[in-house]
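#struct-pred
JK: can someone run the complex with heme C? inputs below
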Amino acid sequence: MKKLLFLLAALLSNNAIAHEHEQFTQEGKAAIKEFAGTLKSSLVTAMKSGGPIEAISVCNDVAPSIAADISNKYGFQVARTSLKIRNPDNSADDWEKEILFQFEASKQQGEEVKTLFVSEATTQNGNHELRMMKAIPTAEICLTCHGSDIAPAIQTKLDELYPNDQATGFKLGDIRGAFTLRKTID
Ligand code: HEC
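RT: done, structure tokens with the ligand placed:
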């Protein structure tokens, strides 16, 4: 009987995790859409009004604050990461690195970057977490600050702000990085 109750409890808790995972996947997709849209429109507006140097400050200040707003709104952590980072605060952890390598492999096999997506329920050191990543393709506008041929004035500003910048040399269509979301579950 005890065994049966234990089994039932385990089943119910698995079921609860599955339910929460499904909800997380749906809300996460919406959060990423909102994050990506807000970032891109802030970037385009800043590039038009003040040029790329001005726009660097959008990425520098505005991106983390948009991430914080969206994290608060949805109740999980929203951020960006990459295998080649500009800001060390955006470093990928082991799980994120593995997914980014998987994304690179899928791209090599001909999958479209914009479709690369993972949502997983993970357990690490006994902690349950829901995690999600969606690849970010490199568009034309991104090359101004992440490409191979960066204008000297922009390069100077980037060197000043990010002395260990790795996020250059990208080509159109490359995986620039990924949106990354996480939520702890009790
Ligand atoms: C005006 C310059 C500029 C442009 C244009 C730009 N970025 Fe960035 N990008 C930055 C800066 C500066 C950072 C560092 C932000 C920070 O401090 O968190 C950054 C960081 C990132 C990151 C976070 C990971 C990391 O390297 O730290 C991603 C992902 C990213 N950019 C993707 C893009 C994509 C995709 C585009 C095109 C749609 C783009 N960027 C266009 C300047 C730019």
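RT: quick notes.
The chain has a mean pLDDT of 92.
The domain at 2-30+75-185 is CATH 3.30.450 (Beta-Lactamase).
JK: thanks, will look after standup
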